[in-house]
Amino acid sequence: MAKITHNNFLDTVDEVITNATKAGVLHLHAEGSGLNGRKIKVNGIESFHFGTTGYLGLEQDQRLKNAAIDAIQKYGTQFPLSKTYISHPLYAELEEKIEAIYNNPILITKNSTLGHIAVIPTAVRDEDAVILDHQVHWSVQNAAQFLKIRGIPVSLIRHNSMDMLEDRIKRLSGKVKKIWYMADGVYSMYGDYAPIEDLISLCEKYPQLHLYFDDVHGMSWKGHNGSGYVMEVLKELPEKILLFGTLSKTFGASGAVLVCPDRKLFRKIKNFGGPLTFSAQLEPSAVAAASASANIHLSTEIYSLQKALQLRINYFNELLSKTNMPLISKNDSPVFYIGTGLPATGYNFVKRMLDEGFFVNLGLFPAVPVKNTGVRITISCHNELEDIKALVNALEYHYEKALNATNNTLERVGKAFNINVKPTTIKEKSDSNISVTYAESIENIDTDLWNKLLGSQNMLNKNGLQFLEKCFSHNDQKEHNWNFHYFIINDQKDDPILATFLTSGLWKNDMLAPESVSKAIEQDRESNPYAMTTKVLSMGCLFTEGSHLYLDHKHSQSEEAIKELLLRIEALGERLRTGMCVLRDFKKSTALAEVFQKEGYIPVSMPDSCVINNLDWNSEEEFLETLSSRSRKHFRKEVLPFEDKFHISILDSPTPEKIDTYHELYKNVKSKNFGLNTFTYPKKVFQNMASDKNWEFIELKLQKENQIVGVMFCYKNKEGIYVPNLIGMDYDYAREYQVYRQLLYQTIKRAKNLNLQKIDLGFSASFEKRKFGATIIEKQAFIQTSDNFLLEQLDMMRNEIS
């Protein structure tokens, strides 16, 4: 199945951001000859600015501007030297002021991203471990990746899950010296807080636990002297805590600040902290502006600014409480998130607000789960109360319009975020003239219609699906029981527009991961067979590949039919309580990609599919002529010389004893194939093959040893498709006698002898299959998860192993 790799992740993010850019809501440019903080000009429209992270508005304070200008005149635009050698004349004064704000030793860094890269690898020792809140800022997660090179364990827990954190601490406590938990003070998307009191309690219970906070979104608008949210809660900073604040954002200047109560550790970080040593220091203008801001923070004026901001925050909260809009996290921070669920709704909503003259931010994957798209609104001292009132009026008006325009509902948004919502007056469209047939068995679907639409694909005809339903029901182990779900969507003339089937069942999470990750997880499964597994609703099933969707693309209602299917899948997933939905086996660059993404699915690459369409030959020499010259050489060297080593049999009904042998050979291959890491199929599947006239077995027996060393399990689709679905081999002989290649060749010969038109060779081993004339088809899937934790956990394991 689909593989999450670094390149794949980049491609996925690229597609998501590209779609949002096409929708006109990202990669925008501010216009005009100046900025004042209250308004910003975008696309020729003068908009009220509700997207800044300068919450107190200090970036427009004249004192900071004057200080920066004066510094440039006196000291130039930059001081291009590392601070390890010498700091420019303004640095010492700023450091003294920032230390007074925190009443602790501090280090100033170029920005928080470089700061984390400097501090984390220095503070965390080889004998330590790191646990990350999975919503901690990307800059922290990125810096933590450097630790894995040194073999330091780095893992994720779900957002603010103290139970999961404590469990992880217990598991690590006897293996490491210090355990660092890294989190944000104020989280940048939803504006919610870290549970600091609970974390301090854990520190007291487990002395190994140390805390690392990124509080850049809590800076200035909260805390004594604007020291931030974390300091507001703690008052004093214990030695076991490292704290990052910022001189950017609300502070109004540039740079970031590390607060380190442990003076010995402080010295080590200062003496060698990566970018602290080898990067240029802050420009004189930035240091001067920060120093001017520090003067404000050290005066009583900071509390007046905090109070002014809090007045605006409270007013916005009050107005929002009188609306139906789903505020995802209600608190007193200046960050607000209104959920839209579907990306399509988020795009539409943000675009409407921009056109109305209100600049707000779009929250989308990977910053949030794809189905948790929404609008992030920030409040600052630049915003007047009448601006906020106008904003709420516009939000309330356009939110309903955006839902209707994208066939979304408030109830669906509530389910996506797992929050209660007020009853809505928004109604789903009722003028649709399409009809939906749903069944939970192929027996309840018209045979001729189904076979006409999907029967020529792989083993998707009625006989094949009857076989699968029989095999994957009433089994002892839960992973071997699948539920089947069939959909056919017709127009008002009862002509089919769409047909597909899905299965729900237990998957290994690492089926989306590289082989190295699967191998590591399988070690955990030796004691816990269901470690890292999820109930998944998937188009098709794990036994089939190819096109699982029939769609009449030329039909005027094709897109409507797709969206109706996705609604039905969403409802089905809720009923079955699945953790992931997978739409799979689409060709790369499918025309449906944009529709799927707007409806909350992200694209991921799959292994290539391999098919042989050319069986128009009548002899071995004619077959060779269909191959490339290099493949012909390969065939004559690696395949043909070994054919007479085997006794080759085609069996329709093997004996129970042979089925036992075949099953063991299959398990040999399965135990080595982590590229498609599924659960091992039970013997019942193979027993059913032996009694089903649509299945046959290509057996390779070494003549010299009289030993069965290979078997191909093949389905004969009456529509002219040969499907070698599974393979079994004895690895004691596989390499010496080229068993795999011989099985491929005998499969091709058998399909030709049966006068079939196509061979579905399936996924994996595409390099080998290409040598036999297979056409390689790039495939992709589209997945939707309830949150990003699963994907981020696997990606972190991939990085650690690589």
TrEMBL record:
InterPro entries registered for this protein in UniProt: Acyl_CoA_acyltransferase (IPR016181), Aminotransferase_I/II_large (IPR004839), AON_synthase_class-II (IPR050087), BioF2-like_GNAT_dom (IPR038740), PyrdxlP-dep_Trfase (IPR015424), PyrdxlP-dep_Trfase_major (IPR015421), PyrdxlP-dep_Trfase_small (IPR015422)
Classification via Gene3D superfamilies: 3.40.630.30, Aspartate Aminotransferase, domain 1, Type I PLP-dependent aspartate aminotransferase-like (Major domain)
Aminotransferase class I/classII large domain location: 53-395
Segments forming domain BioF2-like acetyltransferase: 631-769
GO molecular function: pyridoxal phosphate binding; transaminase activity
Cofactor needs: pyridoxal 5'-phosphate
Source organism superkingdom: Bacteria
Pfam families in the cross-refs: Acetyltransf_6 (PF13480), Aminotran_1_2 (PF00155)
Ranges annotated as spanning the membrane: none
Keywords (A to Z) from UniProt: Aminotransferase, Transferase
Stored PANTHER family: CLASS II AMINOTRANSFERASE/8-AMINO-7-OXONONANOATE SYNTHASE
Protein name: Aminotransferase class I/II
